[in-house]
Amino acid sequence: MAAKLTNSTKSELFAAKKRHVTSYDVAQYAGVSQSAVSRCFKSGGSVSRKMRERVMKAVEELGYQPNAIARGLITRRSNMVAVIVSNLNYYPEVLSQLSARFTERGVHVLLFTLDQESDVGRILDQVWQYQVDGVVVAAHLAPGEIEAFNKRNVPLVFYNRAYSDIPVSSVSCDQVEGQRILVNLLVKNGSHKSFAVVSGPADSVVSMQRTREAMNRLHDLGIEDIVQVSGDYSYDSGRDAVDRVMAQRGALPDAIICANDMMAFGCMDQLRYGYDLRVPEDVSVVGFDGVRAAGWSSFNLVTIQQPVDRMAEAAVQMLLDRVENYVLPPEKRIFSGVLRNGATIRN
Amino acid sequence: MAAKLTNSTKSELFAAKKRHVTSYDVAQYAGVSQSAVSRCFKSGGSVSRKMRERVMKAVEELGYQPNAIARGLITRRSNMVAVIVSNLNYYPEVLSQLSARFTERGVHVLLFTLDQESDVGRILDQVWQYQVDGVVVAAHLAPGEIEAFNKRNVPLVFYNRAYSDIPVSSVSCDQVEGQRILVNLLVKNGSHKSFAVVSGPADSVVSMQRTREAMNRLHDLGIEDIVQVSGDYSYDSGRDAVDRVMAQRGALPDAIICANDMMAFGCMDQLRYGYDLRVPEDVSVVGFDGVRAAGWSSFNLVTIQQPVDRMAEAAVQMLLDRVENYVLPPEKRIFSGVLRNGATIRN
After folding, report:
1. Which of B125, B92, B89, B127 minimizes the C-alpha distance to B109?
2. How far is residue A302's CA from residue A290's CA, in Å, rounded to a whole number?
3. I need a surface site. Which of A68, A158, B131, B289 has the fewest CB within 10 A?
């Protein structure tokens, strides 16, 4: 046993190694058991007044900060959720909404950003290691990866990725309905007979849904003059798409349907500044998402506005409900997008 | 003591409560001490071959995932850093760069987003609770708040917030130099005699530095016709700024200097679509940051491009160096911004 030290010597010794004082240090310093220290910090922990005073004195003198993570090991809650997002640069509103809403509720966000949706598999191991209470995923998972969540009983909510054949919770914007509204609008005003459809990244299910619905709906309405080119959601790929449509058709179509707003901006800029054409007088353009810049006067884009605030709120609430009660059955919530009436469709 | 159970019964019992299998569960299942389990997962931990086999069998059967957080309690490292950002919507590139670079190195990011820079004090308590290894802060801290980091020996690196009178690490873009380049460019070409300067949020030190330097430099170069109005970094506040300049001066100045790009876009759109003026023929506009949209043909903005990739890399490296070795002295790294030659200054 160590020679008896005065409290001030002990305090100095602790100060010298002061980085991350632990409950073990507090117990040693107070001369009590570690479990007694734990009980002082646990709600409803049984501990005598004298013991509590002794521990709290040590806590104060050592500058001990009760450790949320260590507490998590006791309650088996980390009070952390993981948020996995791709395309952060194209749609930062989603992350800032999710982050703000979790923070409001005292839940912390461990962030994983992906360059490409298909990278998600590689980071799941890291997610498991932190034993987060739940995960919001705005990327595509393979069925086996979803199964891994179930196996570990980690609640999972998809953001804008819905699975029709797997029972898993999700919050989405109705891509099909939104796309149909846009196509109807273009076709029914009678001045658009030829179309280009610009899809997003090949590994994005959302982009795929939007593009497929646009193609289907155009066909259903009897339109036959359609070219399809692929982009990657970026502004630059929207510009390129115009050149590629031009190369394929030899002329520009009446309207260009883009799988997101960012590509629509690139498309509009290339039409205006690359081809010296007017939008919408020469070519109409529509997007999807309703990002902030859609409302800028330079674009004033016709698009489908996703109700990001309501969707983020729903995702946060659904996840935390399932952290509280793991056996809640999966639920899919599908929000209608709202048509943003801009000035990029000609009469 | 519990009656002896067969392994398959035990395995089922554990499966029933399988959420978050802990090292305690593994120890119980294997019939060994918890410290023996820990030694199996600690690099260099001394443990017999037989013991390791026994533990690993339990690990496999229970689906135990060695817990990064629990391991952190042993090494006193959480392998997590906090990133505190404000203005996420105006400048998502910073966060996505920081996040990608930490992730590359196997370090995880606990994200705190702020609506307003001045909210930062309220979240520091939450940061302490997670005992992160270090923090990157892209917001302003009061001296007492910085002192709280020192007291806890938590390494801290500021992103784009430098303190001249406090020894603390920071990575910044040279706001003063950048602003001076822009003002020189405008004044020296001889066609700008009257100016408006649009500042950002009142609690942003970066905005304050940019605006102050613009005012000082204009005065130094003998310009006297200057109005100053304040915005909040948003596109809408850039639009409003034009109206307020108009109200104050009764006419628009030759050039408008905005404290960030987003306000410059709002400004340009209001000049073009609100007043039917041409940029730059009627009014020149400059921004600061070099966000992606500055390169869009609709804007093609003259601005100072912050070298975000190099700045993010420096911030990550400086922080992790200090996590390794806490006694490294503070360091300030100041990167020059790069002039982006657009088409928003008239000849």
Report:
1. B127
2. 9
3. A68
Per DSSP bridges, beta strands A303-305 and A338-340 are antiparallel
Structure tokens at B17: 């409560």
CA distance B166 to B173: 18
Cα A77 to Cα B17: distance, rounded to the nearest angstrom: 14
Q: At what angle do helices B143-151 and B120-129 cross, to 10 degrees?
A: 10
- Cβ atoms of B65 and B21 closer than 8 Å: yes
CB B120 within 8 A of CB B139: yes
ipTM: 0.74
Which pLDDT value is given to residue A6? 58
- pLDDT, tens only, B144-178: 899 989 888 899 999 988 787 889 999 999 999 99
DSSP code at position B274: I
Cβ <8 Å between B63 and A106? no
Q: What is the pLDDT of residues A64-94, one digit of tens each?
A: 766 555 555 455 678 899 999 886 766 678 8
Handedness of CA B52, B56, A76, B14 (dihedral sign): negative
Q: How far apart are alpha carbons B65 and A57 in whole angstroms?
A: 37
| C-beta of residue B336 within 8 angstroms of C-beta of residue B177 | yes
Tell me how many helices (H) and strands (E) chain A has: 13, 12
Q: What is the CB neighbour count within 10 angstroms for residue B39?
A: 18
Which two structure tokens, joined as six digits, stand for B343?
């088409």
Cβ distance of B68 and A130 shorter than 8 Å: yes
CB-CB contact of A140 with A87 (8 Å) = no
Contact B131 A72 (CB under 8 A): no
What domains can be seen in chain A, in order of their start residue?
Answer: 7-74 (1.10.260.40), 78-173+308-336 (3.40.50.2300), 175-306 (3.40.50.2300)
Distance (Å) from the C-alpha of residue B203 to the closest C-alpha of chain A? Answer: 20
Q: Does B310 touch chain A (CB under 8 A)?
A: no
- The torsion angle over the Cα atoms of residues A148, A149, A153 and A158, rounded to 10 degrees, is -160
For A98, the closest chain B residue by CA position comes to B113
Q: How far apart are CA B294 and CA B301, in angstroms?
A: 5
Q: How far is CA B140 from the centre of its chain?
A: 11
- Tokens 């409302």 sit at which residue? A295
CA dist B331 and B329 (Å) reads 6
